[in-house]
Amino acid sequence: MSTVVLVAALVAAGLIAGLFYAYACSVLPGIGRGDDKTFVEAMRGINVAIVNPVFMLTFLGAPLLAGVAIFLNPGPRPWVIAGFACLVAMIVITAVVNIPLNNALESGGDDYAAVRANFEAVWVRWNVLRAVVSTAGFGCLVAAVLTRR
């Protein structure tokens, strides 16, 4: 059972790290090429679409499964603990920075230039950090799987 939980945490963490990586290197640079209205409306649409059961299961499931794996895994617990800590950091960044920015974007009205100016640079910077910490969490869980006794 401990191996199944650890591998499930690893897969979920990999999917989330890949999502934030894709945002950082393709989605945001791509929609960033558009005008202010296009950028704001695209991000508003993405923010609504991403809150779905599949995303939430993976986003919340990765740290939850890693936390459970700490207690089930008799092997290299320091790697699992480090992976869990990174994935919790990803959740905290999202809750403290990205979600409030998403909410401000949604309620920002139709002055697209101002809405974008208050959103884009900060959101992008913190998304890159989410990509880094979620990738670190994934890497730690990879190490945990590879060094299991």
Task: Summarize this entry quickly.
The protein is an all-alpha fold. The protein contains 5 helices and no strands.
Walk me through the structure:
This protein is mostly helical. The protein has one domain (about 1-145). About 85% of the residues lie in helices and about 0% in strands. The protein is built from 5 helices and no strands. It has helices spanning about 1-30, 35-50, 55-70, 75-105, 110-145. Helix 1 runs antiparallel to helix 3, helix 3 packs antiparallel against helix 4 (about 75-105) and helix 4 packs antiparallel against helix 5 (about 110-145). The longest helix has about 35 residues, at about 110-145. The model has no long low-confidence stretch (mean pLDDT about 95).
If helices are DSSP runs of H or I spanning 4 or more residues, what is the number of helices? 5
Query: How helix-rich are the residues, as a percent range?
Result: over 70%
The number of domains is 1
Quantity of strands, as a count: 0
Contiguous uncertain segments of 5+ residues: none
Structural class: mainly alpha
Shape: elongated
Distance between the termini: 15 Å
The rounded Rg comes to 17 Å
Mean pLDDT: 95
Largest sheet composition: none
Order of helices and strands: HHHHH
Strand content: under 5%
Transmembrane segments: 48-72, 79-101, 128-147
Keywords: Membrane, Transmembrane, Transmembrane helix
InterPro entries: Anthrone_oxy (IPR013901)
